[in-house]
Amino acid sequence: MSKHHMTQKERMPYVCLLPFVLLFLTFGLFPILYSLFVSFQSLHGPRDNPEFVGFSNYIFLLTEDAYFWKTIGTTFLFLFLGFLLPNLCAIPLALMLHHESVKLKGYFRTVYFLPYMTNTISLALIAQFFFTYNYGLINYFVSLAGYDKIEWMADATNNPIYISIIVAFRQLGFYTILYFVGLQSIPKVLYEAADLDGATTAQKYFNLTLPQMAPIIFFAVTLSVINGMQLFDEPYMLTGGAGGFKQSAFTLAYYTVWLMNKAQRLGRGSAVSWLVSVIIIVLTYINWNVTNALEGKNRGSDLGPVRRQKSLQ
Amino acid sequence: MGLKRKTTPVNLSMSIFRYMVLGFFSLLFLFPFYYVFVLASNDIKTIYNTPPPFLIGPNMTNNFIIMLQTIPVLRYFFNSLMIAVLAVSTKIFFCTLTGFVLAKYNFKGRKLIFAVILFTLTTPRFLNIIPLFQMMVWFKWVNTYLPLFIPSMADGLGIFLMTQLIRKTAPDELLDAARSDGYSEYQIALRLGFPLAKSGIALLGTIAFAASWNDFMYALVMLPGHDLQTIPLALAKINWTSEKNIPVLMLFNGLSIVPVVLVFIIFSKQIISNMLAGSIKG
Lengths: 313, 282
Description:
The complex is a heterodimer.
Chain A: H1 8-38, E1 41-42, E2 51-52, H2 56-63, H3 68-98, H4 105-117, H5 120-130, H6 137-144, H7 158-184, H8 188-196, H9 201-229, H10 233-239, H11 252-261, H12 266-297, H13 304-312
Helix pairs in contact in A: 3-7, 3-9, 4-7, 5-10, 7-9, 8-13, 9-12, 11-12
Chain B: H1 2-5, H2 9-40, H3 60-70, H4 73-104, H5 110-122, H6 129-139, H7 156-169, H8 172-180, H9 185-196, H10 198-214, H11 217-222, H12 231-240, H13 246-266, H14 268-277
Helix pairs in contact in B: 2-13, 3-13, 4-7, 4-9, 4-10, 5-7, 10-14, 12-13
């Protein structure tokens, strides 16, 4: 009866959103703020009392820490070999798969996506066996070809390389299908219009396919950076949690978990997480600008009619 | 002229080249799934032979018996499945309900909540690992199923997807018609909102299942004990022991892959489009 009473329709959104808000505050917002807080504390283990130490966690990491810079280097190596390189190789593969003369598209699509649908740990476990020194398939073929067997694991250079190959194996098919689906969604009308304008194959690739694919390339590279900077599963699983031979497999996420679980340095671990987050945000920003430049470059080029056609759709 | 060009030898050899490259990679991608059963069907000595075995061996049954005796396989399957069911069902319930409200109701604070959800999409996932572990220690939730589904229930990506989808699939006229039929707002959400969001639920379910089934980092940190280990965690921990029996471990590994692969092959088209749509947060 009172005008101050809310109707059910007005009340309902708040009732339904209450659990979300509580969950978000507890498990979404609080951890981020707490992580920032802890990165300025000295905290040995989850039951220890935090002690304020200012920027010393960050300063220690950047100037004295034995592993931090090496870990950054290894993470970028994994990002490049395990994510960006397969991303690049996926473009020609997707173009081949997209070609009108290729049949069995459904088969290829399923098989290429299969490694991505498989548990990371399961796949790494099988792949690990291919790289063992004495009885792995790869060294068998290497010695068959007349070369010395390669030490993949107990070698500080080869260790991250062989892990990257295993990571890349899972990513290559995924990006191929991502690009393939993107290519399939470009309207055929655009190519017909370009043909009418007398565009060559190369012109169509650079002036039509590439700009049309730019948003998907941006998405794929962003995804690579986000996932690559946070790589954890394969390096951890393949080296058993202690960093591998001479700590050559430490990624930033791996190092964070090691600092938390093994070294019991939660403050320093949180500082690592924050530094990584800043790197990810900066890289995404750079990528965003590069993609915009890619897309904008072709504006006002000889594809005027095609652009107009597109806006009609 | 244009038609003739398509049948030149150059085009034919290009076509063969395409099939060779694509075929090579498809065999490469299939090989591990074959080889895991080669290892699983040989005995512990023949896998160390030179040349290594290339064919399915005769020892599968024997390895299977050893596996059942030495590894609590069913327990690990149960753990993984339980966590996946809890994670998928709670996430679907919360994200659909929240998405429905955000898509179909105008209320004060709506924009703020949407901004908050977009903000959570931009924060890296592992920024949370240390504080979440500490919170789980405070709550005494370590070594329970709880940390593996409760913190991810109100998932920003899931809510975002559901909001966008329900905006399109639930027409206001239909909801108003239900109101004039005497349905309460809660009945409308449950009886109309959920069925109208069917395709989004399939999408979110696929992503949430894959994320939960594949999760390694959170399981590793939150389940240090023995009883609640998931399949990936058990595989890794057995692999780290020095006296492991590789054919038996590979059999366990192979069997854990089979159900997901079968489901994937049957629904591959649907699953691929769902996974690509949801890959924003990896």
